[in-house]
């Protein structure tokens, strides 16, 4: 049975303007249950990630600041959220959810985290609404336990996975692939193992053509035995910040292609949702739900 990590901590209260994007974490599972795409037994609530696993990726000094609420005002501005014990707890739950999804993916081919994709977090700092880098933590956990030999991170959020790229820049066991808007945040890009920048206004055909050419080649050259997929829906033409023009159907076709390609090569995949900032939250939820529907269709 395909498993889905469900975070029940929503970090209330948040500043004005931040609560809206958080709603999707409640609405996505509700919609999937309502329409019968998933059943309640597929959802699980992770425990917080333990310190030992966090410290495989993050510096001890930074982690202590998160635990003891001693981030400076400048550090909080860089993250975009005011610090709170609940926010730190939520990030720990997200990180463990992605670790758990890895283990479930090894059983069922795929597992999905309704949160996650916090790819702007570095070893020693947070950025862009990301405190802890859940995929990096999970990747380092898998490697430390000798469960995998080579990992491919497929980051298709519209924003470059700068924290992830920096964390693994000298690690030959993790290949980072980021396909993102060239002129989107972060404005200083780190160097992934492979970056595919897209110009403003790139549409569905251009986007999918690039993905169709790139991903199969990576599979055959990198030869991963595990993959992470960051399935951000901020590539949509309705996104407030994305600058791309990919249709809802194009976004769904992206998911179909990624899942099909990995499945054909027998590569298990842990999925996290990443960004989505369309003005109408129904569009955000629908695009994310398409990722789950696709996974259920192909792997169930």
Automatic annotation (TrEMBL):
Q: Locate the Histone deacetylase domain: which residues?
A: 22-281
| Keywords, in A-Z order | Hydrolase
Q: Which GO terms describe its biological process?
A: epigenetic regulation of gene expression
Membrane: present as a keyword of the record? no
Q: Name one Pfam family in it.
A: Hist_deacetyl
What are the protein's GO molecular function terms? histone deacetylase activity; hydrolase activity
Q: Which family does it belong to?
A: Belongs to the histone deacetylase family.
- The name this protein carries in UniProt is Histone deacetylase
